[in-house]
Design goal:
The complex is a heterodimer of chains A (268) and B (285). Chain A contains eight helices and 14 strands. Chain A is an alpha/beta fold and 268 residues long. Chain A has a single domain, classed as Glutaconate Coenzyme A-transferase, CATH 3.40.1080.10. In chain A, helix 2 packs across helix 8. The chains are: A alpha/beta (268), B alpha/beta (285). Chain B: This is Glutaconate CoA-transferase subunit A.
Chain lengths: 268, 285
């Protein structure tokens, strides 16, 4: 990427977070997955969507943390929430009850239909790598009205065939969700460090609709394990604005200082 | 009726080899002191239940105490993997363990069913999810009114549940506040419940009427352990020691380093050592 295209010096990860934040609306009720989604959701709240409702699975509804939580249950989420409910209430009344507009998830492994694996690499009963598992994601993926996914691209992460179906996306594609009796939209947006993707209306295969500034089609294909489809009307993602970039960097600096701030010698 | 005991007495009286036990706490109020006491007393063949096993189950699994774990997220929240649990699942070290894996919704509903005295929980879940194919305890039922197919999982009914809470009053009623997680359900679902608390106060007369209070007759034993949820946190008392969670990733990565750390920080210590660990975390709370 030339200097001219990137005078602010943003990184691909910063572009990813900011592009993801732009997808959220002020009146969204967003169930925030652990990791990358949390940064995007809070940048949205600190820029164009000040009234967005951010919900973490620890039961905190309407949180407004000053620093990004390390876990989904840091105390600041509760301190700044409109209300904090129990975990069964969170999953029964709020998620299963159909009150979430956007479920925002990350992924260890993703396929072209937006199916996510965060459970195992290899065989479930003899795993090569045992990952943390689904947590709240299997039901976030099917009970939220829509699902957004964000992850950095890699051939290991974006694969033709995932090792385990932790959370359903569009299954085998097409109307598979409907055939399973699921009436929510599933994944409608994928934001990576290189591009913005949307599912094809018929096949539901994720298709690149916008390349981030300075990114080529070849770069997207080289970091993706399936044959990438690009839309005819391919766009370029607008660069981060100064305000977006400053908001994200300030948030990450506050977060780093806060998390290191608890360190103390040999504290067990 | 509830007894006020030392933590070592409370654990010894209520936990047995082979028990099905839940040490619950959803990021907040994790009963670390009680888990460390169980490790010192050396229980074996436990079935460990917890939505988010995190550090204490990594430690108990690494010490060879578990024959089975029931869980929905076997990670170090915000940091990554649990390396002792991985070693057990991937390599059978220090012993083979059986796993029963659910989603958070599945576990939360199963605890609620346990508290409600039901045999199973019914909810809209696991649709299109791979877990239903590998966990025989995930089944389905058809709604007799609408015909909708719903997920069903057996109720969780631990022999004993351990939780940590802010305070008890002199009669042994317990207050839990902040992120209350699954603690109330885990206590009511269990045959016996043991609670460690930060402090005991004279009475709860001035509390807001809708706070989460567990009446003393739902609890077998209370132990006062200031700092007892470190490196987790107790809302209003001390903040989460995020640095310790980051550090755990390195400690647990190596079998020998893990053993040395456990010897120094758990086996050779007692519940009284927790208060000092949270001193530097109190000001921000």
């Amino acid at each position: 990427m030339s200097e001219g295209q990137n005078p602010l010096g943003f990184t691909p990860n910063e572009m990813m977070t900011i592009a993801a934040s732009r997808a959220l609306k002020n009146d969204d009720v967003c169930f925030v997955g652990i990791g990358a989604p949390s940064a995007a959701c809070n940048v949205a709240r600190l820029t164009h969507a000040p009234d967005i409702t951010l919900i973490y699975e620890s039961g905190t509804i309407g949180t407004a943390p000053q620093v990004l939580p390390l876990s989904i249950g840091d105390g600041e989420l509760c301190d700044t929430a409109v209300t904090t409910v129990s975990v069964p209430e969170m999953f029964r009344y709020w998620l299963q009850g159909g009150r979430i507009s956007i479920g925002f998830l990350g992924a260890a492994q993703l396929d072209k239909y937006g199916n996510i694996n965060t459970t195992v690499i290899g065989d479930y009963f003899a795993p090569k790598t045992r990952l943390p598992g689904g947590g709240g994601a299997p039901e976030i993926a099917t009970s939220s009205k829509e699902v957004y996914i964000t992850m950095a691209q890699s051939r290991r992460g974006m694969v033709e065939k995932i090792d385990f179906f932790t959370s359903l996306g569009h299954g085998e594609g097409g109307d598979h969700r409907k055939r399973l009796g699921i009436d929510t939209a599933g994944p409608t947006l994928l934001i990576t460090d290189l591009a913005i993707w949307k599912p094809d209306p018929a096949t539901k295969e994720f298709t690149v609709v916008s390349l981030h500034p300075g990114v080529s089609r070849e770069q997207v294909q080289a970091t993706c394990g399936w044959t990438v489809k690009f839309t005819d009307a391919l766009k370029e993602t607008p660069s981060p604005t100064e305000l977006e970039l400053k908001t994200l960097r300030d948030l990450q600096a506050r977060t780093k200082a806060a998390h290191e701030g608890t360190a103390k010698g040999e504290a067990a | 009726m509830v007894k006020f005991l030392s933590l070592s007495e409370a654990v010894a009286e209520n936990l047995n080899d082979g028990d099905t036990v839940a040490f619950e706490g959803f990021t907040h109020l994790i009963p670390t002191a009680a888990a460390h006491e169980a490790i010192r007393q050396g229980f074996r063949e436990l079935t460990l239940i917890r939505m988010t096993p995190d550090l204490i189950y990594d430690q108990m699994i690494g010490m060879g105490m578990a024959r089975k774990i029931v869980f929905s997220y076997v990670g170090n929240p915000g940091v990554g993997l649990l390396r002792r649990a991985r070693d057990a699942i991937e390599n059978g070290f220090p012993r083979e363990i059986e796993i029963e894996e659910h989603s958070h919704a599945g576990m939360a509903n199963a605890y609620e069913a346990g508290a409600a005295g039901l045999p199973c929980a019914v909810f809209r879940g696991y649709r299109g999810a791979g877990l239903a194919a590998v966990n025989p305890n995930i089944k389905s039922v058809t709604c007799p009114f609408t015909g909708e197919v719903l997920a069903a999982v057996p109720a969780i009914k631990p022999d004993v549940t351990f939780i940590h809470a802010q305070k008890a009053d002199r009669k042994g009623n317990v207050l839990v506040e902040g992120i209350i997680g699954i603690q109330k359900e885990a206590v009511l679902a269990a045959k016996r419940a043991v609670v460690s608390v930060e402090e005991v106060v004279d009475s709860f007369d001035d509390l807001h009427p809708n706070l989460t209070v567990l009446p003393n007759w739902t609890i077998a034993a209370i132990a006062v352990v200031p700092g007892g949820s470190h490196p987790s946190y107790t809302h209003g008392y001390y903040v989460r020691d995020n640095a310790a969670y980051l550090e755990w990733d390195d400690i647990a990565a190596d079998r020998d380093r893990f053993q040395a750390w456990m010897q120094k920080n758990v086996i050779d210590k007692s519940a009284d050592d927790f208060a000092a660990r949270v001193e530097h975390l109190r000001t921000a709370a």
